[in-house]
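(Protein data)
===
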Amino acid sequence: TELIEKLEEVVMIWTKQIRQVLVESEQIRREADDVGPSAELEHWKSRMSSFNSLLDEIKSSRVKKIISILQAARSKTLKQWKELDGSITIAANEAKDNVRYLYTLDKFFGPLASASPVMMEHIPSLINTVCMIFCTSPYYNTSEHMTSLFLKITNQMINTCKTYLCEG
């Protein structure tokens, strides 16, 4: 029972740390007013990397052994652990899916950032791709995500036009 108590303490510490990661990942991002759409892709790539690392750690043999011992002891701490494990898996899947969809926009980021208003020829394809993401993505099709993406696209267009006007 002393071993079980020690392992439960370890799992409770992990639970607290994982909860903190989840809470931080859900907080509103503070970004500069003129940040472009590539920042959205970078954010989700970073988040995907973080959650994948966390998943790798959770699935490590060391953690599995501890969880197995606690399962055999019918520990009550496992209910919270399983909920968090599920939350981490969902967050990792969301990040992975969002990166996959945002990569479809990556080809537009270069022309959008070029110092010429000629970018207008790319806008219909860009908007069609954003529409496709909205219609097909199981995670990215929220008002918050779309607003953030359109804001960044608009910022990039404004920055490109400013650069063009200042150089002209």
In short: DSSP finds seven helices and no strands in the chain. The helical segments are 2-26, 38-58, 61-72, 77-103, 106-113, 123-136, 143-167.
